[in-house]
C-alpha cells in the first residue's frame, strides 16, 4: 500500500515584518541605522539597494509603518496622478525603482512630478532596488540627476550567522520549530542569500505537510536533493 499523503493548500502565512523582527548584522546594519534615524536625514530622499532577499522589502515596510508613507509602484503611477496618490501625505516609498523607470514614459513623468511634490511639501522619499541609483536608466534628465544625487546605502550578502538566524525566523513565521541540528545541516547547503532561505523553508514546510512528517535532517535532505544543484551549495562550492 502507498503511504497516505496530506492534501496541502497554499493558504499563505503572515511573515513578521515589525522592526523588532528585523535581524541586524554587518551586512545590513548601516541601512538599518539610516531607517532608524528618520526623520533626522540630511536630505529628503534615501535609496537602499541590495540583492534579492537582503531585507529591502522588510526595511521599506518598517519605514512605511513608522512614517505613514504612501507605497508607490508602476501600477499606481499608471492609474493616478501624484496629487491623487499623495492626498494630504508628504512621505512615500517606491520599491523596485529600476522597473518603474523602465515602464511607459507617462509613469516616469509622474514619478518626477511625485518626487518634486514631496520635496516641495517638505516630505521624504525612500527608494529601493537591487542596483544602486547610479545604474538606474532614466530617460528624463531632471529625474536622473535627482535620483543619482541621492544618499544611497547598500545591503550586502548575508553571512552564515545571519542566514542561520533568518532560517529560524522563517520557520517561526510559519509556526514551525526546528532543532538546531536541522538549521546547522541546512545552512551550508543553500545559497547564502535570504531569498534562497525563504524558498527552501517554503519547500520544506510544504513537504512536511504533504508527507505528514516532522522536519528532520532526512526530510530536509530529501527536499534539497530535489532542488537545482541537489542541495550541494556549500556557500557556493560543491560539497565534497
Automatic annotation (TrEMBL):
GO cellular component, one term: plasma membrane
GO molecular function: DNA replication origin binding
Alphabetical GO biological process terms: DNA replication initiation
Hda lid domain span: 166-224
Name of the protein: DNA replication protein
